[in-house]
Amino acid sequence: xxxxxxxxxxxxxxxxxLNEHQAVKLIVIDSIAFxxxxxxxxxIRTRVLQMIAQKLExxxxxxxxxxxxxxxxxxxxxxxxxxxNTTLAxxxxxxxxxxxxxxxxxxxxxxxxxxxxxxxxxxxxxxxTSVQYxxx
Length: 136
Prior knowledge:
It comes from Racocetra persica. This is 35533_t:CDS:1. With 136 residues, the protein is an alpha+beta fold. It is 28% helix and 30% strand. It has helices spanning 4-12, 14-20, 42-63; strands spanning 26-30, 66-70, 73-77, 86-90, 102-109, 112-120, 130-133.
């Protein structure tokens, strides 16, 4: 998949694939931002992302599968959050925030890996929890 048009076409045909491959229980899209790297008007990008998010939500519900969207992070200047007036923000902004039921931020600190539960519709009591993990 090289652009948002191909991604959209794939997702629109995902039902057929999943009907033929019922053992599939996880879909990972890495990275959703990659497909929107070309210059698009904000309104078009927003509309396409909302359509994709809605279709993926329908697929997850219909087929009882998990869908993971990886999004890159970018530095946002202004807002007085960090010592140098910067904050980390999702590369596509908050367009997908509402569509995602859970958001996990993966990060490294001094060569150790952490996962931070940023948002959870199913386990709100665990929000703001961070755990260390390792890849073996």
